[in-house]
UniProtKB/TrEMBL annotation:
PROSITE patterns: ZN2_CY6_FUNGAL_1 (PS00463), ZN2_CY6_FUNGAL_2 (PS50048). This is Zn(2)-C6 fungal-type domain-containing protein. Residues 73-91 have a biased composition (Polar residues). SMART domains: Fungal_trans, GAL4. It is found in: Nucleus. It holds the Pfam family Fungal_trans.
């Protein structure tokens, strides 16, 4: 057991001005006087008895002994894996994405922590009931590969198009399915699995994507997954499918291995000797694909990045198609600038957005500092201004990224749709404003009203933008999208409720109904995604409980909303998106670019009187790592238990009342 921090003198000894021996459960003077040995916590002002501390330490010892016994009986995890787990634990890394804001939300007594406790009982990961698929009929195979080139390959061109086309020809020699070697079979079936996700949702394919994955898995033992470019491609392809279904392996672990391979192959550096440009382009693509994966998964789980941005020297891929690259031949270096409809433009735009995400994560989440009561008002205002300046610059970067995103006049996939780029930009803006709110509060103790309103507006737009893509079956179902919606809904429910102690104006009935309508759409999306991913249903149910606690008339408004939209699956009214579904105060739309009074923002929410600043003493501290659970759900990474608590992993979705 860790050494107990030094206890303060008890009330009896203080009142009699006698030295206290600070013994547990009672000091000598209290034993002699036969009185309870109590003391006052100077941080919280609450009174505790030494007997309570002794009881808690006894319970801690029992729990540690039970955990130690359970660990001793476990044979599935080696000592090396345990050491790695400790080293890579989120407790030793950056906080999970925006965890402080969610701690605040889930620690609030209004949201019934005793019900939210059920979030900690993690459900069993549901895998589809499927059997390995046979090689599809040539017509179906060509449909699947055509869809792959139009969909997944546009965003993640990790495989060279000429190689994939050659694989398709080998698979159907003379118009009939042919026998492929293990490497070709693995790639063939994983391409089928990735492409089948969208085709099955659109009703164009009956075969379940997981069947193709099981077929690919049969060849995994006979292919290279350890070293070289081939291993890197194989792992990236596996991780691509893991976005949609749990493969039994953490996507974060795979991403870490991919980046390790990249560094071993020196893909992060410029070539020492001139290369054929086609080869160099492919090396660039593989590195930046690994970069995107690492940034995405590490941010979700709050873990350190595998490589720092300043250590990367390699250029971005050139915005040219494979045919154009082959036309250069030799070692010629075409300009990276190309036409707006370049096939590589989507991937390059995605990389640039991840670079912005990386700066946000490094700036606001990787280096947290606690609020200091020692700081003067002038010092706090200085810190506030510095953080706000960083926010404005990063917000401008997001705005410029959106303005420079590719424009496709004949979009063949939703990755080329302007709604997709709008969704990505708004999602990034939400991530940024959450980080800014957390950083300002942790350094100064304030949460500016304007930033909270921007957070609500951004969260609302994220929900409606995703809704428009989801109900029209443009966007796929993934755990990451579920995590985004869940977080956006929580932020909107929390910051928009008029029960908040710092809410200066009572929200109008119209605005409250509009907010509830957005939250109900979010709830409906979470439930729909939950039917696709059964282990997500408990989170969807708890989200409904939170909304019910935030809005007293939630249950009475819900039937009205359902009746109103019974025959209207698309809730993304684009008229909402032009002004934002959460109305901003006058001039607030320009707040990100300096058109507001910093002093007014600072004093707007300088204190939160009914909420402790040290969450370790809050009754809701059990949820301090709740977002780590959602992040683990999104990445399929359950190698580390945030609360070190042997909770059940086998609760059904119906387990939540």
């Amino acid at each position: 057991m860790a050494e107990r921090p030094q206890l303060t003198a008890c009330k009896t000894c203080r009142s009699r001005k006698r030295p206290c021996d600070k013994a547990v459960p009672r000091c000598a003077l209290c034993v002699k006087a036969d009185t309870p040995c109590t003391f006052v916590d100077t941080a919280s002002g609450e009174e505790y008895s030494r007997q309570q501390i002794a009881d808690l330490e006894h319970q801690e010892a029992e729990l540690r002994a039970e955990l130690s016994h359970a660990a001793g009986r476990s044979t599935s995890v080696s000592a090396t894996a345990v050491d790695q787990n400790k080293a890579q634990s989120p407790r030793n890394a950056a906080p999970a994405e925006g965890s402080n804001v969610l701690e605040t939300i889930l620690s609030n007594p209004r949201f019934h922590p005793q019900r939210l406790r059920q979030l900690l009982v993690r459900p069993q990961i549901q895998q589809p009931v499927a059997t390995p698929a046979e090689m599809p009929h040539p017509d179906v195979g060509h449909l699947i590969f055509d869809n792959y080139f139009k969909e997944s390959h546009v965003q993640r061109p990790m495989l060279q198009k000429s190689e994939v086309q050659g694989l398709l020809r080998r698979a159907y020699l003379e118009g009939e399915p042919a026998q492929l070697d293990p490497q070709d079979s693995y790639v063939f079936f994983l391409i089928c699995a990735i492409s089948a996700v969208r085709l099955r949702r659109q009703g164009l394919l009956t075969q379940h994507p997981y069947s193709f994955f099981l077929s690919a898995l049969r060849h995994a033992e006979h292919i290279n997954l350890l070293s070289g470019i081939t291993a890197l491609q194989n792992l990236l392809l596996l991780n691509r499918f893991a976005v949609y279904y749990h493969t039994g392996v953490s996507t974060w672990d795979i991403g870490r291995i991919c980046m390790h391979l990249c560094i071993t192959l020196e893909l992060h550096l410029k070539p020492m000797t001139p290369l054929n440009f086609s080869e160099e382009q492919h090396r660039r693509i593989l590195f930046w694909e690994s970069y995107v994966t690492d940034r995405h998964m590490s941010t979700l789980l709050g873990r350190p990045f595998a490589i720092a941005d300043e250590d990367i020297e390699v250029d971005l891929p050139a915005a040219l198609s494979g045919t154009e690259i082959e036309g250069f031949g030799g070692i010629a270096q075409p300009s990276p600038d190309a036409a707006m409809e370049s096939p590589m433009a989507v991937f390059i735009a995605f990389i640039k957005l991840r670079q912005i995400s990386s700066r946000i994560q490094t700036t606001f989440f990787a280096k947290t500092k606690r609020a200091s009561t020692q700081l003067s008002i002038h010092a706090k205002m200085t810190v506030f201004g510095e953080l706000l300046d960083i926010y404005q610059k990063l917000s401008e970067d997001i705005k410029m990224w959106r303005q420079n995103s590719p424009i496709y006049f004949h979009a063949e996939t939703f990755y080329q749709m302007q709604e997709w780029y709008e969704f990505l930009a708004e999602k990034e803006q939400l991530f940024l404003v959450r980080g800014t709110i957390d950083a300002i509060h942790s350094r100064t103790g304030s949460r500016p009203t304007e930033l909270c309103d921007i957070c609500c507006s951004s969260a609302s737009k994220v929900i409606h933008l995703y809704s428009g893509l989801y109900w029209t079956k443009q966007i796929n179902c993934t755990r990451h999208y579920f995590q985004i919606l869940f977080t956006a809904g929580l932020l909107l429910a929390y910051f928009s409720t008029n029960e908040h102690p710092d809410q200066s104006d009572t929200a109008s009935a119209a605005q409250e109904q509009e907010t509830m309508a957005t939250l109900m759409e979010c709830h409906r999306l979470l439930q729909s995604l939950g039917h696709e991913m059964q282990d997500a249903l408990p989170y969807a149910k708890v989200f409904g409980l939170i909304c019910g606690a935030a809005f007293p008339n939630w249950t009475t408004y819900e039937p009205h909303w359902q009746a109103l939209h019974a025959n209207d699956p698309d809730m993304s009214r684009r008229g909402h998106l032009s002004t934002g579904t959460f109305p901003l105060s006058s001039g607030l739309n320009n707040a990100a670019y300096g058109d507001f009074d910093q002093a007014e923002m600072y004093y707007a929410r300088d204190t939160w009187p009914d909420m402790p600043t040290d969450w370790s003493y809050s009754p809701g501290h059990l949820f301090a790592d709740m977002e780590a659970y959602v992040g683990q759900f999104a990445t399929g990474d359950f190698s580390w238990d945030p609360l070190l608590n042997p909770l059940s992993w086998n609760m059904s979705a119906d387990g939540i009342e």
